[in-house]
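for ur thesis appendix - Spermidine synthase. copy paste whatever u need, i formatted it the way the template wanted (i think)
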Amino acid sequence: MSVSETVVHEADSPFGAVYVVDVGDQRTLRFDSPEGTLQSAILKSDPLAVPTSYVRVATAGLALTEGRARILVVGLGGGAFPMLMHRILPRRSRVDVVEINPVVVDVARRFFSVREDARLHISVEDGADFMARQGPRYDLILLDAFWDHGTPDHLKESLFFQDVRRRLEPGGVAVLNIALEEQWSVASRIETFARAFEDCAMLRGASRYSNLILVGTQTPLPSDALFWQQLWRLARELDFPVLMESVMTFERVKVSS
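the 3d part is after this line
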């Protein structure tokens, strides 16, 4: 028996229609149509759950950064990742979010339990403009900005990734979520991202349909064995045991000369 879908909210925005669709216990954010690609999800019965695989895999980026004081997320969606960081990181940590679409911000607040406070701040502006300015540096930057058919082109360019690297703290890590891409373009995206950093690796979740997560660092990545040790310690430190079963592969990216 298929699970019924209910549109609980729809709104026009400067970047197309935004929909909130309930699928059984799961509340989802979709763009352009109620049948559009799932952008974010929560469980209504357990708002603290993390049902979206890529959010858990992206969290593994914390195993590669020396600091946890300041996190930046480009692309709010339903706010799953920033709210998770707000919940599991120490109280002295701060999470900044940049989202270009004011309607998405309104929907995240009204339907996905996103709450700003002294530790979580949302700016409504273009992620590239934010990154190009002088400003604070971050221990982890997650690049998670999407329209219905993928990432905006100007957030795929090498200049943007150079600005991302410049905004990292020494020892920081950039995390890129790649989804909704034609297969022929994925290799180019990986190459462009990897060239901006000293070292780069791909992370994947358990499902073969999982988003591809890239991590870029300013210093050489740890060995495979050391990465898994660091991930295990991170899961214990954050009391987030599902992290270990969420990440299935850690594969270095080799950039062509």
